[in-house]
Write a structure and sequence with these properties.
Blueprint lengths: L8 H14 L4 H8 L3 H8 L7 H10 L15
């Protein structure tokens, strides 16, 4: 599995966009799969920093993605 170190919403959005494209889904299809609106998904993919975290997590789960939190400076295990 590929790991991505994301420092900001734009980088998270890029990962989500890439995953959607890997799955060969349109934004409308992906939004329906994730049970969110197309506008929300578009804003997420474009890195909008003020989106509802619960909905972001909902999209990540639907796409089979995880968020792993680590303290700065900790090495990969």
């Amino acid at each position: 599995m590929n790991e991505h170190l994301s420092h900001n919403p734009a980088e998270i959005g890029k990962v989500i966009l890439q995953r959607r494209q890997e799955m060969k889904l349109t934004q409308a299809e992906a939004a329906a799969l994730c049970k969110v609106g197309i506008r929300f998904l578009s804003e997420l993919e474009n890195g909008k920093p003020t989106l509802h975290l619960g909905k972001v997590m909902q999209v990540l789960r639907a796409f089979g993605l995880l968020i792993i939190l680590k303290r700065k400076g900790m090495s990969h295990e």
